[in-house]
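Sample pair:
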Amino acid sequence: MSLNEEINKMRQEIRTDGYPMSISEWISLYENEEIDIHPEFQRFYRWSPEQKTKLIESILLGIPIPPIFVSQRKDGVWDVVDGLQRLSTIYEFIGILKNDEKKVLPPLVLQKTEYLPSLEGKQWEQIDKPENSFNSEQRLIVKRSKISASIILRESDEVAKFELFQRLNTGGSTLTEQEVRNCILVMLNLELYKWLKELSDYEPFLETICLSEKPLQEQYNMELALRFVVFSQIEEKELVSMGDVGKFITDKMTEFAKNNTVNMETLSNNFKKTFDTLSRTVSENSFKRFSHAKYKFLGGFVLSPYEVISYGLGYNINNAPEDNAIEEKIKNLWNDETFKSWSGSGITATRRLPRLIPLGREIFKA
């Protein structure tokens, strides 16, 4: 297929429309439940009150706001693909934003800015303190301001929606790679997202990975749970040609979500048995570096032993070693020549995993 043919084929698969809309129209869409901003996404976005205030300031000053990308579903409802934080900020300021439990959140209180210091303490409407409310002229400025809608039409290839989401929400974004995956998973298969979230919050799992607050906020525990789902039962021949590991994980997740190819009950049992075993045997030391010289575990979570231990034990969980052998196997791992050769700095996951996953399966055979 020539380049022109490839371009024409893909252009046919992505059909779009676009036009400017007033903020009043965006508000109406939300109130009539004709737009889905996926309140589950809120935990993945971390705009500060200052950033939110700057958006409202931009609207008041007439500074153009980037377009909102939406995808038209079969029922006609728009899914927000990019622009969730902008819309959420507007809805929060107006006082209509709901969380994923359908409860209205407290209205946004603005801060002072360099150009509009009098914004400090202002709200859309504060009945008991009308002097802190926007007046009718200020409200009309907001309502009449326009933000363009860029619409991926219903007849587009469904994959285009998620490809666009990834492109718009990576590179210069505040979202981590897993947070982008989580958003895609919510749009593709909410039940699978909830299942993965439940696994990632499983107490013995959290105990063994022993992450600090920042990686937990950035959903790294969900990435580690997803990695277990992908790699603990994978056929080894797939590892040879997987290419970029981040993309491979995303593609596998998308395949699971679209085709319902995950046996959630079996994988849940394997996951819980694996981390129950590690919790009662090695606990928070499960994935820390072991120093034979000092004969103790040191530091924090390390990914490469996680790839050997959790995937290997998970693969063999119904025929695993006795508990009293687990800790010794983990300690011995740090003297294993294959592990030392393929777990050092500078070795990419693409090169590392084809060696470490078979190693883990061999080590944790009963």
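The two ends are 51 Å apart (CA to CA).
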